[in-house]
Structure prediction request, 601 residues.
Amino acid sequence: MSKAAGSREALKNRFRSDYCGLLSPELEHGSVRLAGWVHRKRDHGGLIFIDLRDHTGISQLVFLPEQEELFAKAEQLHIESVICVEGTVVRRSPATINLRLPSGEIEVVVSQLTVESNAQPLPFPVADELPTSEELRLKYRFIDLRRDKIHENIIFRSRLTAAIRHYLEEKEFIEIQTPILTSSSPEGARDFLVPSRLHPGKFYALPQAPQQFKQLLMVSGFPRYFQIAPCFRDEDARADRSPGEFYQLDMEMAFIEQDDLFAILEGMVEHLTRTMSTKRIKQFPFPRISYKEVMNRYGTDKPDLRIPLEIQDVTSLFVNSAFKVFASNTKEGCTVKALVLKGRGNESRLFYDKAEKRAKELGSVGLAYIQFKEEGLKGPIVKFLGEAELAVLREHLGLETGDVVFFGAGKWEQTCKIMGGMRTWFSDLFTLDKDELSFCWIVDFPMFEYNEEAKKIDFSHNPFSMPQGEMEALETISPLDILAYQYDIVCNGIELSSGAIRNHKPEIMYKAFGIAGYEKEEVDKRFGHMIEAFKLGAPPHGGIAPGLDRLVMILRDEQNIREVIAFPMNQQAQDLMMSSPSEVLPIQLKELHLKVELPKK
Prediction:
């Protein structure tokens, strides 16, 4: 349990003089006042024991039968009732010491009891971690938050936020709040819209991120900005993102390069990990992997580097192969990839059938493999490959008897992703260290990509990133070969954040948008206020915005983001406790000049 700040004198009032979890033998024979919830109650005939809980922990209370009125009052108490007591601290006998509690060496013999709130039967227990449906937990979230694990998650989140603030203030960052009511940005996810009463027919939008505001703060002359920022996106729920709203550590810095930002964020993450958790960072500074390399080696730009598997490129080995499926995929834009499982060549047929099923789910037409067994080579493609070809493959991949190699072939990006999905699927074969944090930076993202549907060049990610090489690159390099100063930070397969060094030069911005097919007039119409600001003196700047919810998830070993948010929505974006979203009164709609037109059933 967490420790409360402040001395005994600072917290004394009519309800309490001490906290339950902080009582110690040093207070023996002393008089204390405690307040909290009845966690457990045990009637041992001649004595009644109550575990009293507050946010610091538990103290054991003892009610003696000779105090008949007090004893009878204690007998009537219900679990989770709120009480205040006065009593004397005594040492427990050696046989009754509870080493699981910080206060387990002492107990409080109660002399006075006040019942502040007598609880009715609860929909689910607090003291015992029994399986409870998520629907019930969210409907009675205020009770769920009393449970030890989730209560600790919320306290940890508060401490983490305070530590982040302290760290960044030491690095001369300035905390600035940006608007919640702003303008709609149709380029990103769906906005949450807020109708304006004063301006009929017009709408505010809740910010998907403070992106434009924080860049304008750099133009305003603030050197380093941060904010624990609420962000709102009307999108479906995921295990690592709450629907509707989430919080991020929004950061921006002027007069920096990519390396400067990496140093700041790495230092902060290392500090938080070292001081607030028992986890270990695998490699520091964090390794940097280019987008092309990470796709080639791991098949995803969110790799879990703890998985001891790497995809290998074997395209060159099959250029002249008689196996046409592989040979036809050695031309430009295509690839042949291999994934070796050491010592797994003797798995059952069911194992290979399940692997092929998973590959098909990922978009493959099948899954070719070769088993290197004692009795010889086996697999669906062995008959198509010559002995010399197999020998070169064995040497190239370092294959030994007992191994199995899986193959993927096709267009480069699709094949990488399929093999990356298989790498993740095979990770269940390994025991991954949950206390190891394997951070990495993914860098050198392509600035542009070819949009097959629209048959045109388009931005691959953030259109406001600075291209590497700036104007010269845009004028002299093929668009699909231009890299951007964009970066992601990833930990154990979870993307914590994307960021970029921004494009602060209007002429480069017009040129980049021109390559993507935007006329100058359209750029001015959509982003005129940003262009205008950059024309009036803008410093080089860049930033990032790690997800606070995800960072807490990682440090607290939680798989579901709802376990680290005080009042989350369910997967249907509903707040079951507050019955939100809900209908509103007709007069409210009238004031906003709105009419509800429901879809026809």
